[in-house]
Each structure stands twice: as structure tokens, then as C-alpha cells.
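Continuing the series of single-chain predictions for the mutant panel. This is the parent chain; the variants come on the following pages.
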Amino acid sequence: MHSISSVSRSYNVKPFVAPLFPWGISHDTVEFLRSLRFAARALHPALGLCSTYAEPQIPIRPLRYAMKRERLTRIQRKEQTLENLLEAARMMFVKKGLAATSVEDIAEAAGYTRGAFYSNFDGKPELLLELLRRDHDSAHAKQRAIVEKVGTREQMKARAIEYFRRQFSEHDGFPLWVEARLLGCRDAEFQERFNVFRHEKLDQVRAYIRTVSECEGRPLPLQMDALALGLVSLCDGMQFFRMCDPQMVNDEVMQTVLAGFLSCVLQR
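Parent structure:
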């Protein structure tokens, strides 16, 4: 029986692993495989292979280059560029504001050039609208789940309070909506496109109020349009106060106000 230390280090493993790594392997990998061969040879000489086997020249590359990267298609690269630009813009708009953020800021933060930005967007307003659309669609899906899920009036009210509470506490994109409102005051074309989101949001709240009202057949104290506008305005105002003074408008305060409003509206 041979000891591991007595095994000659002239045994070469490269010829046997080369077909498995045609793109090259790292030096550390070669050394690891060689140590396994030493151990096998020491345990059983029959496991050893001829040490005079001709050694082909294979490239030894740093480990980070050893594996081939999957090539992205043109469509995949374009989608990746779009997502990176949107994420960078969202971060910059929240941090610096729309006016103080330049196209160059967004492109640099995403790791691209101005050309990459303008190949995806006509300008910052269009990019902002895309961010709002995604945020709006996500909120719409969550609110629709409240309306479609059956239950008693109290259960639906509790779900609505929890939904709006989480929107307040977890909605880090609310500054984007503030930026959009300010831009809409100065840009009539942008205002028209932005108002589509607001009208859809009012429609969603109307659907919720109608469902709760029909649940037990009680009449509403005000017209449905007025109640929907009041609830949306209340939520927007509380989110704005929370953004300016989080200590004043904490989770407990928000839940109390929402519960009081919904109780007054839905239980008369």
C-alpha cells in the first residue's frame, strides 16, 4: 500500500478532464482534481493511470472566466436595458426629484449612455408615466382582490383598512405621484395622460363601496361618486402628511382615521 505522500506528483489529470472543460479550467480546479488522483493512487495502485501520458496544452484561466455566460437575445437585452433604466430612474426621482434628475443621471446610474435612454423613452415624462403605470397596476390587482373576495361587511371593511394601511406604510413610490401631480399642473398633455390613472383609481374605489353597500342592502349616506372622491382624497392627503412627517402620521393614526371614515360611511 502506498502512502499519499509517496505518490509522485508527476501524475497528470489534465488529459482526462480536458474533454469536460473545452473552454478551459482554473488552476485551483486542476490542483483539486490532481489531489483526488493522488489519493486514489495511494489507496489502490490499479486506479492510477500512466504517468507518461502525453500532456496536451489546455488554457488555465481565472475561475471567474471558466464558465461560459449564456448569450442573451436582442429582445432580452432590450428588456434588460429597459428594466435597468426604470429602476435607476425610480431611485433617482425619489432621491433628487424629477426636475433635478437629468437623462445623463439616469443613464449613468443604470450603466448606459444617453443613446440607450432615448432608444427606450422620448423623455423623462414618458419614463415617469411608465413607472406610475406599473405602480398603478400593482395596486389595482390588490384592490380588486378585496372587492372580489366575498364576506360580511365587517370583513370587507377590515380588509380595506389593512390594504390602505399597507399602502401607506409600504408605498415607497408615493413621491413619484407627487412629482406627477406637480408636472401635470404645468404640462396639459401630461396631465391628460396622468388623469387616466386617477379616473381608474376612482372607479376601483366606487366598485369597492358599491360591493360593501350591496352586501347588507343598506343605503349610502352620500352619492357613490362623492364617497369615492372623499376616500381617495383622504388617502392621498394622509400619505402626503406621512411623507412630510412620519412621526405625526404613524401606522396607528392612519388605521384610526381610516376605520373611523369607513365606519361612518358604510354603517349608516
